[in-house]
Design a protein that fits this description.
Blueprint: E1 3-7, H1 14-23, E2 27-31, E3 42-47, E4 73-76, H2 78-86, E5 90-106, E6 117-130, E7 136-141, E8 146-150, E9 155-157, H3 169-180, H4 189-204, E10 209-212, H5 217-230, E11 234-240, H6 248-257, E12 263-267, H7 269-276, H8 282-304, E13 308-310, H9 315-323, E14 347-349, H10 357-366, H11 371-374, H12 394-414, E15 422-436, E16 439-452, E17 460-461, H13 466-479, E18 483-488
Parallel strand pairs: 1-2, 1-3, 3-4, 4-9, 10-11, 10-13, 11-12, 13-14, 16-18
Antiparallel strand pairs: 5-6, 5-7, 7-8, 8-9, 15-16, 16-17
Helix pairs in contact: 4-5, 5-10, 7-8, 12-13
The chain binds adenosine-5'-triphosphate (ATP), xanthosine-5'-monophosphate, glutamine and magnesium ion.
The site of xanthosine-5'-monophosphate has 15 residues, from loops.
């Protein structure tokens, strides 16, 4: 399958770029400059933008892997600076920079179907001050800055064609993908599913597979694909770690059974609480939960003589933990990627690793999975373990389950939950004085959170109507004896993350 490879230099818009190209029907993958590998199916390479300056000491360079690999390159912003430098041009810090909407005049001979002047979206302080030999300016901003150049094959833009605010941006990307790279449109989810089923058959052979099933969208879709490929050789394992939402274990198991997949429901709650005893550091808690998951999976796999572990890891999990590698700080270890133990006996099977969440959902629809399983809110593998701040125990889990279930019920009944991407309650290790029935009370503080997001990478808090907040607060403080105070979290991501730990 023809593919365009995006090399990620840390731009905010890298994922968007990959999305745009897939929306054109062409498969596209993202890799860091270190991880990028040349492969024959790659028809073109895009160098993304990024926060660094190419002339800075230690700045990420032009990928060595591309030396002698004759495919067209498109550079965007930082990528344009890299390409300019590589071909012998010069990049310097500009006097002012260009940020936001900027008019650009386009070379009409190169772009026949695009107006002479377009509005583009810029975000740069550096600029190309001297063009490489054999390159020609193909776009210039109203400030006189080079906004695009090309040597006839490779092409570079200072603005971001992948951002909606750039007029005709999609046409410019299409021009590169189809006219320059000659990529063919053969990326279709249904074709992807068929290919994956064949691939899983080949990889697994006559072995057996166990799969972590949480009831979430990702693991459900991964399981249906795998069961199509290996049939009865697949067994799903739902781990109840005691940190699920109230009644979630019962509901999830029922829903999953309706898929016709063999399912084992393991109650490992005592084991998880035992392992978590005395631990209050968030990273340590995440690592322990990740390891305990694997211990449970390995134990079940041994009983069944299985050698593969299926996980519903998706693209954003990988990108986030990629972001948790060399080029940036580690924020938190997601249990299924960064939280895995170093040594594992099971071989990992991750068939939807390359997909975005909405693609996973669409694939789920095309596989005929119940909509109720596909429209669920994301729920983190460590569950309430990262929503009980500080040390976790079964009593705190019980209290938080009650609070969370009241909050969710209020949101559902008011119709507000349909507008929210993710919502939950957090139990704080803080006690507060109150007065209940004329007596002094001294109870837990809980925080409510509701956010909107598309991929979970950024999020903004949801403006819940005051009457809904009031109802939630009153039902929680009267329905859960141990709770004395309710607060609402009004922090976006960034600077916060969605979960509190
Ligand atoms: N309680 C659980 N039992 C078994 N496996 C689990 C459990 N929780 C998480 N997993 C495994 O970890 C993977 C990652 O969890 P994650 O929450 O990102 O995905 P998901 O639960 O499938 O989907 P969603 O993001 O919609 O919740 C899952 O795909 C699944 O394989
Ligand atoms: O499967 C998961 N394992 C984890 O360890 C994990 N940590 C956070 N999340 C979910 O990921 C999204 C982003 O969360 P953060 O802003 O807290 O990083 C949100 O949707 C979180 O609920 C996890 N999911
Ligand atoms: N958005 C970008 O890629 C910016 C590139 C570089 N950091 C600059 O400021 O010019
Ligand atoms: Mg989940």
């Amino acid at each position: 399958m023809d593919r365009i490879a995006v090399i990620d230099y840390g731009s905010q818009y890298t994922l968007l770029l990959a999305r745009r190209i897939r929306e054109m029907g062409v498969f596209c993958t993202v890799a860091s400059p270190e991880e990028f590998k040349v492969e024959s199916e790659i028809k073109g390479v895009v160098l993304s933008g990024g926060p660094q300056s190419v002339y800075e000491e230690g700045a990420l360079g032009f990928p060595k892997q591309l030396e002698g690999f004759p495919v067209p390159i498109m550079g965007i912003c930082y990528g344009m600076h890299l390409l300019a430098k590589k071909l012998g041009g010069e990049v310097r810090s500009g006097a002012l920079g260009e940020y936001g909407l900027t008019n650009v005049s386009m070379d009409n001979e190169r772009f026949r179907d695009i107006p002479e002047e377009i509005v583009t979206w810029m975000s740069h302080g550096d600029e190309v001050t001297s063009l490489p030999a054999e390159c020609k300016v193909i776009a210039r901003s109203k400030n006189g800055i080079t906004a695009g150049f090309s040597n006839g094959r490779d092409i570079a833009f200072q603005f971001h064609p992948e951002v909606n605010h750039t007029q005709f941006g999609t046409n410019l990307i299409e021009d590169f993908v189809f006219n320059v790279c000659n990529a063919s449109r053969n990326w279709k989810l249904s074709a992807f599913a068929e290919r994956k089923v064949e691939e899983i058959k080949r990889i697994v052979g006559s072995s057996k597979v166990v799969g972590g099933l949480s009831g979430g969208v990702d693991s459900t879709v991964a399981a249906v694909l795998t069961s199509k490929a290996v049939g009865d050789a697949f067994t799903g394992i739902f781990v109840n770690h005691g940190l699920m939402r109230k009644n979630e274990d019962i509901e999830v198991c029922e829903a999953l059974r309706s898929l016709g997949i063999k399912l084992i429901n393991v109650d490992a709650s005592e084991e998880f609480f035992r392992e978590l005893k005395g631990i209050d550091n968030p990273e340590e808690k995440r690592k322990i939960i990740g390891k305990t998951f694997i211990k449970v999976f390995e134990r079940e796999a041994n009983k069944l003589n299985a050698s593969f572990l299926l996980q519903g890891t998706i693209y954003s999990d990988v990108i986030e933990s990629g972001a948790a590698s060399k080029n940036s700080a580690k924020i938190k270890s997601h249990h299924n990627v960064g939280g895995l133990p170093d040594k594992m006996n099971l071989k990992l099977l991750e068939p939807i690793r390359e997909l975005f969440k909405d693609e996973v959902r669409n694939l789920g629809y095309s596989l005929g999975i119940e909509p109720s399983l596909l429209t669920r809110q994301p729920f983190p593998g460590p569950g309430l373990g990262v929503r009980i701040i500080g040390e976790v125990d079964s009593e705190k889990a019980r209290i938080l389950k009650e609070v969370d279930s009241i909050f969710m019920d209020v949101l559902r009944k008011s119709g507000e939950s349909e507008k929210i991407w993710q919502s939950f309650a957090v139990l704080l290790p803080v006690f507060s004085v109150g007065v209940k029935g004329d007596k002094r009370s001294y109870g837990y503080v809980v925080a409510l959170r509701a956010v909107n997001s598309s991929e979970g990478m950024t999020a903004s808090w949801h403006e819940l109507p005051h009457e809904i907040l009031r109802e939630a607060s009153s039902r929680i403080t009267s329905g859960v004896r141990e709770v004395g105070r309710v607060v609402f979290d009004i922090t976006d991501k960034p600077p916060a993350t969605i979960e509190w730990e």
